[in-house]
DNA sequence: TCGATAGTTCAAGATAGCCGAACTATTAAA
DNA sequence: TTTAATAGTTCGGCTATCTTGAACTATCGA
C-alpha cells in the first residue's frame, strides 16, 4: 500500500516547480488535471503508449513539486491538482504556463 | 572565433524555455541580465566560484532557449536579455518567474 | 480462490549535466 | 613583434538523472 508524501508548498523551491513543468508529457498531464478535477494515473496519462513505470515516475515528480495530490481509492490512485496551494506559493505561474502551452 | 547561433523564438518550445529557467544558477543569471541590460559572461555569473566551462554551458543553454543574445566585443562576449522577443513568444512567463524568484 | 486490474518499485541501460584541461582569440605590455 | 594576460569556448570523462521492462503489491470481481 503506497503511502504518498505530499510536501508543504513552502518547502517547494521554484526550480523544482519549473523542472516539473519543463517536460511535454508532464505538462500535458497537468493540463488534463487542470481541466478534469480528479483523474486516475492512467486517466492522467499524456498518451496511450507511455509505459506504466514512466507514468508513475512522472506523477511522483509532480507530487514532489507540490503540483498534485494523490490518494488511494480502491485499486486506483486518484490525482488532483493542488491548484490553490500551488497558486498561493507561486502566484500566476501555473496560469501563465498553461496559457502558453502548445495546443 | 565563436559565432553564436540565436534561434527564432517561434522555434523555441515551451519545455526548453522552462528547462532553461529551472535552475537556480541560470535563474540568477537571467535576473541579473534583467536588471543590468548588458553583461559579460563573468559579469553575468551567479557566483564567483562557478567554473568557467559550466558558466559557458549555462549561457549556451540560455541562448538556445531564446533568453539571451550574445555578441562579441573585443575579447569579451556581451550578453543581453532578449526580453521583447521572449515576451512576445511566452507572454507573462518571464515576469512571473522573476517575480516568484527567491530573494 | 483465481484472475484481472492499477499502480509501485527495482535495476540496468541510455541520456544529460558538470567541470578540469586544453585551446582560440583578443588586448596590453615590453 | 614577441610575450603574457584575459575572456571565453570546446572536449572528454565522470557522475547523476531519466526511461523502461520486469517483478511485486494490493484490490476487486467472478
UniProtKB/TrEMBL annotation, chains A, B:
An example molecular function term from Gene Ontology annotations: DNA-binding transcription factor activity
Protein name, entry field: ArsR family transcriptional regulator
UniProt cross-references to PROSITE patterns, sorted A to Z: HTH_ARSR_2
Gene3D superfamilies in UniProt: Winged helix-like DNA-binding domain superfamily/Winged helix DNA-binding domain
Annotated InterPro entries: ArsR-like_HTH, HTH_ArsR_DNA-bd_dom, WH-like_DNA-bd_sf, WH_DNA-bd_sf
Annotated ranges, domain HTH arsR-type: 6-101
Pfam families found in the cross-reference section: HTH_20
Organism of derivation: Allosphingosinicella deserti
